Amino acid sequence: MQGLIDIEPKQYLDFAAEEGKLGQTTLTVFNLTSNQLSFKIKTANPMLFQVKPSIGIIAPNNQVSIVITTAQPLKENGNLNSKFQINACTLLQDEQDLTNFWKSVDAALIQQVQVRSRIKPVEVQQEIMPQQIQQSVISENSDMMNLLYQSIVDPKSREQDEEIQRYQEQIDQMTKELSDYQLILRSVKQQQAAIKHLGNKFELNQVLIIGAISIVLGFIFGN
Question: What start and end residues bound the annotated signal peptide (predicted)?
Fold first, then answer.
């Protein structure tokens, strides 16, 4: 029987070897049908692995995550080449006792998928970390660019920019008017100084003329 389930990962269950820690990984089983399925996980080395859950039900077009943990810490140079078998079968009715169900089910109705386990090399983990950091930086830069774009196209932001521009134009106009006023004031002062200077010269000429006339008249009358 084929086509009931799919699994991820498909070939290897990778267990990270960390000093003093148990190895752990997750196997995802997908129900590819519109029927309710039952699954059962078997391992060639049940003393080394804990599978939770090892038996259960998957709803139609749904999935289940199975956590597999080693019973003891792993060594980087150790061997973990164990085989897991995932069995799946359609449930035509609600089953209260799945253990008895799997004991009596027809083998022709079972789909079987196999996957192996292995220790994940430390250098692979170290190579992945910079990629994750790089992706995080790219994501943060993308978020910042999106915020910047939103601030540019935001109507409120545009209104504020337009208001600032109007204020700036008013300030420029007032500055120009002040400069023109200062030029006019300087010209008026220059004209006042010129008029005063000309006034002084005019009075002096008058005095000289009057003096000359007096001399002439005195000379005439004296004679």
Answer: none
